[in-house]
Amino acid sequence: MVLYSESSSTPTLATSFDDGSFTVEHKSVPKSSDSDTPNPPLYVVYPTEKGTYPVILFLHGFSILNTWYSDLFEFIASHGYIIVAPGQTLFGLLKGLCVFSAIGDVEDAAEAADWINKNQGENLKLILPHDVSPDLENVALAGHSKGGKAAFALALGHANTSFKFKALIGLDPVEGPSTSNRLEPKILNYIPQDFNISLPIALIGTGLGDDGCCGCFPPAAPWGCNHPFFFNECKPPVCYFVAKDFGHMDMLDDWVVKFTGIFVCKTGKGSYADMRRACGGIFIAFLKTYMFDDAKDLTTIVDSPSTCAPIKLDPVLWLPS
């Protein structure tokens, strides 16, 4: 186990928290009669410079539009990553409300993965500029809230996909509204290191996610269904970071955070831009480590979180093996 320990010397800054050097564009892709686009409108954010870039398949949270993560996605993409974020149809939203299950979300995630992989990435190449290509050897699976649970469920084999992911990232994943009312497929067994997942895993939790809003709304990420319980079941290699002073929605675009802070869940009092920078920087440092064997930034964050991260991260853990 690697716990953080503050160094007495001035640490090297983690460049993952800085703006990347790539110019970024984004595109919403609707579904047409001759298209198999997954969960339209598909939202794709990508570098514009010529090159081949790793891909992140990102699954949105319950009732959250994929475009509401635009600032976070653009920050990550500026470091040389292609973000593919399936949307949600009205039928899918209503089905999720009525059936009260995440099974459909997991099946949709598998379809999106197969869509990316089809014909050696041809679907994605048609969306991207002609000289920008996806690196299908380096694709990460990620998700926030209910989408985080769906990402873990897909990695656990609850839906069939031929795609082989390189890494898994859970951004404040949530199993359900309570321990007695968990969404299908139930994946938490409350047994240490019980997940049968061979991928390296990063977990980013929030310190305020299990607090209710205004005393009348239940927590968005309730205790027993939230990030520490996911971490408890992960096998190494796994990283774990908690944004201690921020809430469950605070990595979304500013206006969404302000709105949800009134009606949905508790929000932090710090800079939401810093929260997005922290989450995006952890994504990048983790993927550099496990896609490209470059652990410099991740090591810096783990060794000196209070001096290199834009927000307070506590705890910080890294179990490399």
Automatic annotation (TrEMBL):
GO terms for biological process: chlorophyll catabolic process. Pfam families: Chlorophyllase. One of its GO terms (molecular function) is chlorophyllase activity. InterPro entries: AB_hydrolase_fold, Chlorophyllase-like. This is Chlorophyllase. It comes from Ambrosia artemisiifolia (Common ragweed). The lineage of its organism: Eukaryota, Viridiplantae, Streptophyta, Embryophyta, Tracheophyta.
